């Protein structure tokens, strides 16, 4: 369990983390989302004591992590996969880490095998691709079998197999009762792997909810697709205050402002046939974009295309 209470970190005038209060529970994968610069990495650094908060607390298993007697066994963290002595082999890197807590060669070799790096175990880390470096970082996080895992962008650079592997691994680790907090900008991955979401924007919590509730909430008030051979009769019956109808093609239209059950009841009440009645569910990505729209600090715009007239001017 990770407990954040009024956690705040300032850099000069900037409040990178601004009064975050949340519990990150064991047994589930918690996805940590937010736009660039929202404060995710800073929060993770505060949790493991790499930064000091201006105010508030971050407790890991009931105490401050810096006071931990067995830090590697308590929290496995992947915060920067490049934070490795590039001249060292993967195996020596893990052996050196393990030596600080009495972990020997057998466990190191097991962990290397579990992340798929056995064959390159004796190669220098600087020769590793981005994905191999991520795997080594994950191996380091798992080395002492910690109860809490903090993974900052673990999927970054992994190939399709690697993504599938980490998805299964995280589910397994959470299933074993561990606390798993991971950040990622890949919404499709997050939707598949996370059970719970913590969304922040400009250092503040925007949502702390199950992924299911997050998507359902974003979908409510959404559209319902109706396919009916009796569309011409049904559509006028659905019209009313706050209801909008958009015809997509003959016999197929979209309704906003009426729920699928209400549309079904109206059709049944008039003996009209319905071939399809589908509420349009928001994706995690669309729900996230909607929530964070006002918190995006570094918004880019697509430059408008120069047409011939502009060029001539
Ligand atoms: N060491 C530092 N010195 C000054 N400002 C910092 C420092 N570290 C982070 N910041 C600022 O704090 C804010 C939060 O940064 P942080 O890296 O935590 O965001 P993030 O959510 O992890 O972003 P990203 O998704 O881009 O990795 C940003 O405005 C950043 O510029």
From TrEMBL:
<dbReference type="InterPro" id="IPR027417">
    <property type="entry name" value="P-loop_NTPase"/>
</dbReference>
<dbReference type="InterPro" id="IPR003593">
    <property type="entry name" value="AAA+_ATPase"/>
</dbReference>
<dbReference type="InterPro" id="IPR003439">
    <property type="entry name" value="ABC_transporter-like_ATP-bd"/>
</dbReference>
<protein>
    <submittedName>
        <fullName>ABC transporter ATP-binding protein</fullName>
    </submittedName>
</protein>
<keyword id="KW-0067">ATP-binding</keyword>
<keyword id="KW-0547">Nucleotide-binding</keyword>
<keyword id="KW-0813">Transport</keyword>
<dbReference type="Pfam" id="PF00005">
    <property type="entry name" value="ABC_tran"/>
</dbReference>
<comment type="similarity">
    <text>Belongs to the ABC transporter superfamily.</text>
</comment>
<feature type="domain" description="ABC transporter">
    <location>
        <begin position="2"/>
        <end position="227"/>
    </location>
</feature>
<dbReference type="GO" id="GO:0005524">
    <property type="term" value="F:ATP binding"/>
</dbReference>
């Amino acid at each position: 369990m990770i407990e954040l209470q009024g956690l705040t970190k300032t850099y000069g005038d900037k409040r990178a983390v601004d009064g975050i209060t949340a519990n990150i529970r064991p047994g589930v994968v918690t996805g940590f989302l937010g736009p660039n610069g929202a404060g995710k990495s800073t929060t993770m650094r505060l949790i493991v004591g790499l930064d000091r908060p201006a105010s508030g607390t971050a407790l890991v298993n009931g105490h401050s992590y810096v006071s931990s007697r067995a830090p590697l066994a308590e929290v496995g963290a992947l915060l920067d996969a490049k934070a490795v002595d590039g001249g060292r082999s993967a195996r020596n890197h893990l052996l050196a880490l393990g030596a600080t807590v009495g972990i020997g060669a057998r466990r190191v070799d097991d962990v290397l095998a579990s992340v798929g790096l056995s064959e390159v175990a004796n190669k220098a880390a600087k020769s590793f691709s981005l994905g191999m470096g991520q795997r080594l970082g994950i191996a380091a996080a798992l080395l002492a079998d910690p109860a809490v895992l903090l993974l900052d962008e673990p999927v970054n650079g992994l190939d399709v197999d690697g993504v599938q592997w980490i998805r299964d691994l995280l589910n397994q680790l959470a299933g074993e009762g561990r606390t798993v907090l991971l950040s990622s900008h890949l919404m499709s991955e997050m939707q598949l792997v996370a059970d719970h979401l913590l969304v922040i924007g400009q250092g503040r919590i925007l949502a702390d909810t199950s992924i299911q509730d997050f998507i359902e909430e974003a979908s409510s008030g959404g559209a319902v697709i109706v396919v009916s051979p009796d569309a011409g009769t049904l559509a006028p019956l659905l019209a009313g205050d706050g209801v909008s109808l958009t015809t997509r093609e003959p016999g197929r239209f979209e309704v906003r402002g009426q729920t699928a059950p209400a549309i079904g009841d109206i059709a049944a009440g008039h003996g009209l046939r319905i071939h399809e009645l589908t509420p349009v569910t928001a994706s995690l990505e669309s729900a996230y974009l909607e929530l964070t729209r006002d918190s995006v600090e570094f918004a880019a715009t697509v430059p408008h295309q120069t047409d011939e007239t502009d060029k001539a001017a």
